[in-house]
């Protein structure tokens, strides 16, 4: 366990700079017992104030805390603007709170490239809690879910249609919703919207500037198991071969341009299909499926704009989709949608990359 703060700070700097010696030292450190909590949400939600209030509440409970505050990078020198470190200056004399501001440096997902390594370091240093505050994020910036054992999504009254706009992104990774600035008009309406969307997670109202609701939030955080879920036990009677590969989906900009290569390779085109609900055209060449956007606002269009052509998802055929979903939810896996009809006469759900190791996973079952 690292107890000297200067040593801890130097090692953190080495990890952030990708120094080989620091990375080797990190790999050799034993794991600790920290609960790693992600605090995310759109800009202006009051995440920094909430993190500050949570840190104080944890110290009152005699818990040690590390705060990793992801700040936007300066356009001049590329470093963090350090706004969070300035705001939390009152903690500088408390050895039980370690604060580190990280420059996002253009890294997508609302976090910095070194975030996972530093969270691992703070865990090894014996901290009870690691609070990771992301920069203000948009709907698809969900990388925090890959690192944190528990994700708090902070929202504020007055978001209006923004809830609809982001519901398919960060809304789906929340373990707890916090309605901050809940003394402002519209808090009740926001809570009603969240509940009407069917999110089965706790909703806590806070006024972080006054520390209102923070103890309630902390109670709920401590009541939830924080950390990576254990894989569920195998279903009774589920033997080898019960789950099979159905197809690998590749996003392409133009089906007609992409098809000849795969046909030259020897794959047979067995069918084409359009899925209006997904705004996608599909060409089926088992075991591959090529996906072309059918509209500018298709999810495939968004994927191509951000990542370019390539692997989009892997589809597994399961014998009982409802049972599979139940086991995944018990393991706190991140699901993008409720079961719905897709191409090829099947029902499907999408499991987000945060739970699968980095790739979209589609679970499918044929329907009658």
Characterize the structure shown.
By secondary structure, the protein is of the alpha/beta class. The protein folds into two domains: 5-223, P-loop containing nucleotide triphosphate hydrolases (Rossmann fold); 244-366, 2,3-Dihydroxybiphenyl 1,2-Dioxygenase, domain 1. It has helices spanning 5-16, 20-28, 47-60, 83-87, 115-124, 144-147, 162-166, 187-196, 214-223, 255-265, 299-307, 321-330, 353-356, and strands spanning 35-40, 65-71, 97-103, 129-133, 150-155, 176-179, 203-205, 244-251, 271-275, 280-285, 288-293, 310-317, 340-342, 346-351, 360-366. The strands form two sheets. An eight-stranded mixed β-sheet has the order 9-10-11-8-12-15-14-13. A seven-stranded parallel β-sheet has the order 3-2-4-1-5-6-7, sandwiched between helices. A hairpin with a 2-residue loop joins strand 10 (280-285) and strand 11. Mean pLDDT is 83; it is low at 227-241.
Protein topology:
Layout: H1 5-16, H2 20-28, E1 35-40, H3 47-60, E2 65-71, H4 83-87, E3 97-103, H5 115-124, E4 129-133, H6 144-147, E5 150-155, H7 162-166, E6 176-179, H8 187-196, E7 203-205, H9 214-223, E8 244-251, H10 255-265, E9 271-275, E10 280-285, E11 288-293, H11 299-307, E12 310-317, H12 321-330, E13 340-342, E14 346-351, H13 353-356, E15 360-366
Parallel strand pairs: 1-4, 1-5, 2-3, 2-4, 5-6, 6-7, 8-11, 12-15
Antiparallel strand pairs: 8-12, 9-10, 10-11, 13-14, 14-15
Helix pairs in contact: 1-2, 1-5, 3-9
Descriptive keywords:
seven-stranded parallel sheet, 24% strand, 368 residues, alpha/beta, 2,3-Dihydroxybiphenyl 1,2-Dioxygenase, domain 1, 13 helices, Rossmann fold, eight-stranded mixed sheet, 15 strands
